[in-house]
Amino acid sequence: MRIANHNERAVLLSSDEAGVDVHTASAGRFGPDLPSIYGNWDDFTAWARALPGNADDVEIDRSLLGSPSPAPRQIFAIGLNYSAHAKESGFEEPEHLPPVFTKYVSALTGPDTTVELPKGGNTDWEVELVVIVGKVASNVATTDAWAHVAGLSVGQDISERVSQLRGPAPQFGLGKSFPGFAPVGPWLVTPDEFSNPDDLELGCSLDGEELQKGRTSELIFSIPELIHGLSETVTLLPGDIIFTGTPAGVGLGRTPQRFIQSGETLVSHIEGIGEITQTFVSTR
Ligand code: ZN
């Protein structure tokens, strides 16, 4: 199933254009918003699967879509998780866990946005599969990891490379957390919707020119391995977001390097989920 955050209400989609308001259809048992549902994910999905074909009562207006998890308590982001991207970044492939950092929650938005380019920066693209946690996860085995996932979404780990790489050590958290630098959407798709949730094509293009294209089967650490590895240290909470890493083709790794210019539009897509669109403008 696919669930959208539409105008701050959870909507169970029947198509890209329409769906059922969860709070109304459940007579107040679930919702109205998505954050209140993540703590009760198994009960919610059991109810949703048993829901008879209710008539759609919500018409989807994409401008009203928010992040499918708009208020996560934690956002994790994974670096260097595709071989070719590790190489273009000038790093060895990670052996234990890849670098883990955060994108601060104030950077999080819905799928279709206008993003201001930070002054004096080099703003870059990183299309990523986003995992939304559906169940508390602590010391989870890889074999049990998918059962802790509510669903998948499309994300952009937009990155400002000057502040990221300046200083004695890389500064990932700040350089990747300018306002609007963490768009996620257009909705959440539950893992059972995919014939193989570990092998999805993802990519992005800037003003129609394809810049990144890969498959999540190329992840050095798969989604189950990431959930296992992260949950050995931290407790993952319902609604938490994990950006799982980007394939090759970022602007920083190109010769010559290339960064986003004012007026350009970035479209990012993942097979079986959909696409998100960011238009960039100069800081006023
Ligand atoms: Zn990234």
Describe the structure.
The protein is an alpha+beta fold and 284 residues long. It has two domains: 2-64, no CATH class; 67-282, Fumarylacetoacetase-like, C-terminal domain (Fumarylacetoacetate hydrolase, domain 2), CATH 3.90.850. Helices cover 16% and strands 32% of the residues. The strands form three sheets. Strands 1, 2, 3, 4, 5, 6, 7, 8, 11, 12, 14 and 17 form a twelve-stranded mixed β-sheet that branches. A five-stranded mixed β-sheet has the order 9-19-18-15-16, with no helix packed on it. Strands 10-13 form a two-stranded antiparallel sheet. β2 and β3 form a beta hairpin.
Q: What is the string of SSEs from the N terminus onward? A: EEEHHHEEEHEEEEEHEEHHEEEHEEE
Q: Rg from C-alpha positions?
A: 18 Å
List low-confidence stretches: none
Q: Which fold does the CATH topology of the largest domain refer to? A: Fumarylacetoacetate hydrolase, domain 2
Shape verdict: globular
Which compounds are bound in this model? zinc ion
Distance between the termini: 41 Å
| Corresponding CATH architecture of the largest domain | Alpha-Beta Complex
Overall CATH class of the largest domain:
Alpha Beta
Q: Beta-sheet strand percentage?
A: 25-35%
Determine the fraction of residues in helical runs and give it as a percent range: 10-25%
Number of helices: 8
Largest sheet: 12 strands, mixed
Strand element count: 19
Instruction: Supply the number of structural domains.
Output: 2
Please, what is the CATH homologous superfamily of the largest domain? Fumarylacetoacetase-like, C-terminal domain
- The residue-averaged pLDDT reads 95
- What structural class do helix, strand and pairing data support? alpha+beta
